[in-house]
């Protein structure tokens, strides 16, 4: 497998992008090539800090970087030699099988959509992200790629989310829930009610509407929502988890007795932290584009970058894109009968 990494993308690039790359190279002998895009002298200096001389690393020199404040589409069109665009170009030319970036999310969506196009049967790509629930891990889609989705886009997201849940997470018959403001089919907007009818008439394992509390109290395997709602849900959930750990840490340090109890329960706390820690999940796939594209968190640590690269490798090996094309084709064939 061959992966292209935007070496200059992210709040802590290139330090963390290079460090994460070195970690992956040490752990994954199945990786044939890792392209690092960005300023070559800077990237070589970072590799030297880790004494990395792995022949699988190839630096692709670029002269530009997409800044977080830039307009996504304009950045892609004007900065053709940016580290992000050149990384996507490597997938377009067939030199790489996947692209990973912790840089500008909007620019990543725009670059992959414009350069790679979408898979057969897919009109708009969506960001699939993993959320830990009480009993399992669910796929939330779309988490921010398409804020103006149409019902047919949502149907495609449901199919793609089901493929990811089945072949990445291992659920044999993933249940799909539509994010709304009530469990009854009459609840929600005209938009969600129309999607409800499409899902109910499909062959997907559609459970019905789900509300915010259902994410954790009565979880499904795939949570379907438009990009605006999904992004709000994702960031609220992340912020809540962070706040709870800060509150817990402060309260546990309030007395020696509490600190002693915390030490005894440290393994339980660590297990819960790892379950909610975005670093362990690495990155979110942009599903629906004609190539593997993984979007990592902007503040990704080296561990998060390593895991984002790991996720890219898993999507390559598990042939997620061909499975998506097949599932959408089956849906259209069934609908036309």
Write structural notes for this entry:
- The protein is of the alpha/beta class.
- 50% of the residues lie in helices and 17% in strands.
- It has 14 helices and eleven strands.
- It has helices at 15-27, 40-49, 72-78, 83-92, 105-116, 151-169, 190-200, 214-217, 227-252, 256-264, 266-276, 278-281, 302-317, 320-335, and strands at residues 2-6, 33-38, 57-61, 98-101, 126-132, 137-141, 175-179, 205-210, 222-224, 283-287, 292-296.
- The protein has an eleven-stranded mixed sheet with strand order 3-2-1-4-11-10-5-6-9-7-8, with helices on both faces.
- Strand 7, helix 7 (190-200) and strand 8 form a beta-alpha-beta unit.
- Helix 1 packs across helix 13 and helix 4 runs parallel beside helix 5.
- The radius of gyration is 21 Å and the shape is globular.
- The two termini are 39 Å apart.
- The model has no long low-confidence stretch (mean pLDDT 89).
Characteristic key phrases:
alpha/beta, 14 helices, 17% strand, 337 residues, globular
- Rounded Rg: 21 Å
> Can you tell me the overall shape?
globular
Strand order of the largest sheet: 3-2-1-4-11-10-5-6-9-7-8
User: Secondary-structure element order, as H and E?
Assistant: EHEHEHHEHEEHEHEHEHHHHEEHH
Task: Please bin the fraction of helical residues.
Answer: 40-55%
Layout: helices, strands, pairs:
Layout: E1 2-6, H1 15-27, E2 33-38, H2 40-49, E3 57-61, H3 72-78, H4 83-92, E4 98-101, H5 105-116, E5 126-132, E6 137-141, H6 151-169, E7 175-179, H7 190-200, E8 205-210, H8 214-217, E9 222-224, H9 227-252, H10 256-264, H11 266-276, H12 278-281, E10 283-287, E11 292-296, H13 302-317, H14 320-335
Parallel strand pairs: 1-2, 1-4, 2-3, 4-11, 6-9, 7-8, 7-9
Antiparallel strand pairs: 5-6, 5-10, 10-11
């Amino acid at each position: 497998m061959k992966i292209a990494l935007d070496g200059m993308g992210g709040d802590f690039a290139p330090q963390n992008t290079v460090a994460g790359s070195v970690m992956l190279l040490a752990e994954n002998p199945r990786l044939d090539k890792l392209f690092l895009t960005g300023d070559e002298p800077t990237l070589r200096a970072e590799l030297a800090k880790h004494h990395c001389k792995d022949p699988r690393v190839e630096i692709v020199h670029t002269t530009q970087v997409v800044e977080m404040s830039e307009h996504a589409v304009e950045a892609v069109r004007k900065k053709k030699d940016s580290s992000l665009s050149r990384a996507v170009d490597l997938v377009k030319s067939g030199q790489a099988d996947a692209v990973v970036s912790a840089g500008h999310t909007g620019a990543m969506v725009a670059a992959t959509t414009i350069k790679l196009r979408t898979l057969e049967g897919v009109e708009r790509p969506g960001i699939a992200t993993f959320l830990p629930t009480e009993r399992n891990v669910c796929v939330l889609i779309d988490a921010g790629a398409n804020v103006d989705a149409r019902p047919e886009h949502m149907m495609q997201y449901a199919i793609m989310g089901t493929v990811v849940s089945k072949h990445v997470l291992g659920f044999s018959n993933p249940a799909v829930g539509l994010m709304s403001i009530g469990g009854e089919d009459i609840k929600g907007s005209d938009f969600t009610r129309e999607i409800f009818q499409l899902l109910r008439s499909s062959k997907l394992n559609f459970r019905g509407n789900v509300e915010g509390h259902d994410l954790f109290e009565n979880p499904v395997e795939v949570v379907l929502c438009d990009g605006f709602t999904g992004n709000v849900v994702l960031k609220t959930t992340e912020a809540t988890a962070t706040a709870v750990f800060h509150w817990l840490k402060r309260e546990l340090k309030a007395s020696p007795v509490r600190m002693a109890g915390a030490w005894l329960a440290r393994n339980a706390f660590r297990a819960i932290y790892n379950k909610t820690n975005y670093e362990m999940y690495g990155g979110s796939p942009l599903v629906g584009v004609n190539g593997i594209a993984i979007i990592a968190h902007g503040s990704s640590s080296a561990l998060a970058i390593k895991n984002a690269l790991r996720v890219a490798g898993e999507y390559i090996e598990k042939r997620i894109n061909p499975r998506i094309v097949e599932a959408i084709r089956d849906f259209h064939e069934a609908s036309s009968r």
